Write the structure tokens for this entry.
Amino acid sequence: MADSQDVARFVLSYENLKAWCERQKYEYRANDELGQLAVNYALLGQPSPLMILPHLSRGMVMLAMRQPYEVPADRRAAIVEATAILNSTSLMGAWTVNRETGEVFFRVTVAALDIGYTDQGLLHVARVVVGTSEKAAPALRSVALDGADPSKAISALVLSS
């Protein structure tokens, strides 16, 4: 329910998303040709930008963050298991694994068609992506690179929530 003192609302067009990044004073890169944004961020001490990927022809915008490593081929089944456990407890968003490249992402997709967002509303979505990615990063890295058991590593993470 909108409050009469609610701040301005905007649709999630590429230009409005760039303006939002400016208002938040984020350091970011813009790809005007593809209509994509990358907000500078780091996970586990490595660059891992928050990607803002409009799919406006489908009426959606995806915010995603990639874990800053590639999962070796022999650990991909374990990381798929780990992300499945995480997905079963997620209220919003999903973990995805590219089985060909070994990239691991957390993503949230929101509707963009005729929906007005506020700065705070979009910031909440961005915080879900960043916060979820940060929280899971050490456990996922241990599964992907250190050979940790997915069930034990992720169960410990889920229990600490």
